Amino acid sequence: MKKVSLYFDIAERTSGGEPLSDEQWSDRAPQHTEIQVKSASFTRNEGFWVNESFLVDPDLQKADKLYLVIVRYQDGDTFGTSYGNHQIVACYDTYDAAWACDPNKVAEYRSWDGYFSRWEGKEIYEFDMKHGGMCHAIQTIGGTWS
Fold first, then answer.
1. Total number of domains constituting the chain
2. What is the 3-state secondary structure (H, E, C) of 82-135?
3. Could you tell me if residue 23 is inside a domain?
4. What was the pLDDT predicted at 138?
5. Residue 98 — φ and ψ, nearest 5°?
6. pLDDT band at residue 146 using 50, 70 and 90 as cut-offs
């Protein structure tokens, strides 16, 4: 079955990351990213800001509510670290399925699984698709999945 795009309006704010000296290869202060997931839509309506999309099963278009699973992770390099990066990993039509989702098993690519990368947590966002796809809830789940 061919997947369809689900579009998201996600505001992102980053602070920190400034060089700690004037040297060319200076260390950087930690960078922190906050996100605000605002809404979701199966269409790119005029006036609907889209900055991310995710392919989902077309049966989800019939759902009254959708539950998006996002992994938050840290990343970096030799000179600094960034916290609060995010990757969309799954979308379901029930909260129980989103809660049970193991990102390590469903993600095609795991941004949190690298030399400088580390898992921070899993977040679940609820969208009321019958009322404009507005985001109404968030739950952060820390810990690890094996």
1. 1
2. EEEEEEEEEEECCHHHHHHCCHHHHCCCCCCCCCCCEEEEEEEEEEEHHHCCEE
3. no
4. 74
5. -65, -40
6. very low
